[in-house]
Amino acid sequence: MSLLTRMNDGEASKPGITVVRNSDGANRLANLKQLAREAAAVICKELNAREFAKLGEPRTWFDLQGAAAYLAISEQTLSRYVKEQTAPPSVKVGKGRRFHRSDLDSWIRAGGILAFKMADGANANSKSNSSS
Description:
Number of domains: 1
Distance between the termini: 39 Å
Order of helices and strands: EEHEHHEEHH
Number of strands: 5
Oligomer: single chain
Strand content: 5-15%
Radius of gyration: 18 Å
Shape: globular
Largest sheet: 3 strands, antiparallel
Number of helices: 5
């Protein structure tokens, strides 16, 4: 079930994305994570459609600059993610890095940097609970 739905022009004065609310409190965190993944995918798809429409065929491999543009983040941020080992998988080619489009898409669908931050938080919590 998708948590994001696009409204038709007749449904609201401002067409856009609406969130389907779920009253089930037990699934709220799962729904929030799913919503974040779907929102990131929608935003990146919209940005990429505009940004890369002029390129013709979709690229398969991106350099750091292209990958950062594809992810809609700065080059410095992507470089930091690479150093922190939270970036999408990449290969070192000469002095540069190359990112495969499918790896970037998978990283976005998995939740991007939020997935790593939540995993780190869960690991920290489990360590503190086991030491108690």
